[in-house]
Amino acid sequence: MARTVRLGVLLSGGGRTLENILKHIDDGLLPAEVVVVIASRSKVRGIEIAQAADLPTHLIRRKELDSTEAYSDAISKVLDERKVDLVCLAGFLSYWIVPDRYLGRVMNIHPALLPSFGGEGMYGRHVHEAVLSRGCRVSGCTVHFVNNTYDDGPIILQRTVPAYAEDGPDDLAARIFQEECVAYPEAIRLFAEGRLRIDGRTVHIDDPKYKRP
């Protein structure tokens, strides 16, 4: 039986991923609770969503601290205080140095099929523009564990969508976001149920759904 996982959500924008996670929790589909939200920007909708849900919410801005190390320490301190089991990056655009104690306990979702179209500067619309300009026929999303290199951590789940020559970036983004709404909660569920095991760069999933027939 899955334990109730204590989630910390880090965001920088509209909060759609937070909204999706909260909906899965409220619908009884996800054995988790969001115990803290950390935003890197003020006046974003993600903060409004967190506050409307009565979630402890912190604004930690990089420009208010002397260094990336100090900024990262401030984030880690809040996560430690809230006894977070799993950190979910939800459109978080600042660089957080993940401490060793959190390795294997931080997830991110990327709007492309890693390892393609990842790395520093590849986020949001930039990703979809790059995919379409390359003429790709498929794209999708990737949930992965986070290390201290952009989009480099072990892949947990991927879901695909078609990419059409007639697509604009917004068309592709909308199609991919529908799959993100499925993939991220599923990865959190697998973590909560203790079904994920990292072996080097590979994540093994102890679930018949992900086994070879």
Give an account of the 3D structure.
It is a single chain. With 213 residues, this protein is an alpha/beta fold. The protein has 2 domains: 1-102, 3-Layer(aba) Sandwich (Rossmann fold); 109-213, Formyl transferase, N-terminal domain (Rossmann fold, 3-Layer(aba) Sandwich). 31% of the residues lie in helices and 24% in strands. It has helices spanning 16-26, 45-52, 68-81, 125-133, 169-192; strands at residues 5-11, 32-39, 57-59, 86-90, 106-110, 138-145, 155-162, 196-199, 202-205. Strands 3-2-1-4-5-6-7 form a 7-stranded mixed β-sheet, with helices on both faces. It has a two-stranded antiparallel ribbon with strand order 8-9. Helix 1 (16-26) crosses helix 5. It is globular and about 45 Å long. It starts with a strand and ends in an 8-residue tail after the last strand. The mean pLDDT is 96.
Task: Summarize the entry for a quick read.
The chain is of the alpha/beta class and 213 residues long. The chain is built from five helices and nine strands, in the order βαβαβαββαββαββ.
Question: What distinguishing features does this structure have?
Answer:
single chain, 213 residues, alpha/beta, Rossmann fold, 2 domains, 7-stranded mixed sheet, two-stranded antiparallel ribbon, 9 strands
Unreliable runs:
none
The CATH class label of the largest domain is: Alpha Beta
Question: How many beta-strand runs?
Answer: 9
Structural class: alpha/beta
Strand order of the largest sheet: 3-2-1-4-5-6-7
Order of helices and strands: EHEHEHEEHEEHEE
What is the residue-averaged pLDDT? 96
How many strands, which pairing sense, and closed or not: the largest β-sheet? 7 strands, mixed
CATH architecture of the largest domain: 3-Layer(aba) Sandwich
Task: Quickly count the domains.
Answer: 2
> Which fold name is given in CATH as the topology of the largest domain?
Rossmann fold
